[in-house]
Amino acid sequence: MTASCTTVLLLLVGMPLAYALAHSRSRLRPLAEAVVSLPLVLPPTVIGFYLLLAFSDSTALGRFLIEKLGLSLNFTFPGILVGSLVYSLPFMVQPLQAGFQQLPRSLTEAAYTLGKSRLTTLWRVLLPNMKPALLNGAVLTFAHTLGEFGVVLMIGGNLPGRTRVASIAIYDEVQSLPAIRPSQCLRRHAAGRGLRHLSGAVLVFEERRRPPLLGPVIDFHLTKALHTAAGPRTLDVALTLAPGELVALSGPSGAGKTTLLRMLAGLTRPDGGFLRVAGQP
User: Quick check: 140 and 64 in contact, CB under 8 A?
Assistant: First the structure.
């Protein structure tokens, strides 16, 4: 219902606005176009938060709506509708503006020459020739409003029967699925990582000490003749690695790091030396 109402209202509001932007020669036109495009770049939660503040009784606008008109927009369907109008405005105005700009000016001039008013020209001449733009704007607005989440959640909350829209209802249904329930996912993700218990949304882990690494002693002394850009040189490396010991191998390009690793892996035959694991060659 929200998407349908928003689409109809934006057709009525966006059509004259798009017509004015398409035919305006004012210096303020770029500013107006930028304001219309703001919902495209602002995060939905930011728009919803600003509207929530604007409609509250702490602002002049909110006090006027509540005290003078008796209209409270926060956490009501009219508030969601206003938020949807603001959030989906560029999706209606921009296609219609492009449609008006693509129409040849001769259509308008011919209608004016025949004595037609601006309203008659718009309704009987221009709109029938821009049906693709109207359809494009209506479809984009409806789909965008149907899927909006952040704005409606900030303004309307999630009140069943009052402000719960399709996107929030779908999210609630997804959260209720056992296979992807957050608590179940957290438990499965934490399994085997020392999870002691899950309290609310807080994971409590107990520290696990890793057993000492066991393994053979690796002892090697390898040599290899290298041919580098700086000239021939000999790689000569001797090292003894204890069980669990970590060694970092670093050096400039051409120092022989890759060659040493290939010799240890058995991919390159060394010119001399030995490699012993647990005392065995």
Answer: no
Evaluate whether residue 123 is within a structural domain: yes
Residues 19 and 149 placed together within one structural domain of the fold: yes
CA distance 9 to 83: 12
State how far the Cα of 79 lies from the Cα of 55, in Å rounded to an integer.
Answer: 8
> How many distinct structural domains can be found in the chain?
3
pLDDT digits (tens, 9 = 90+) for 50-99: 998 988 888 888 888 888 888 888 888 888 899 999 999 999 999 999 99
Residues 141, 10 contacting (CB under 8 angstroms): yes
One-letter identity of residue 169: A
Residue 113 lies in a domain: yes
Burial class (CB in 10 A: 0-12, 13-18, 19+), 141: buried
Task: Flag whether 239 is in a domain.
Answer: yes
Residue ranges making up the domain that contains 268: 218-277
Which one is predicted more confidently, 228 or 34?
A: 34
Report the candidate in 173, 204, 210 with the shortest Cα–Cα distance to residue 190: 204
Is 213 contained in some domain?
no
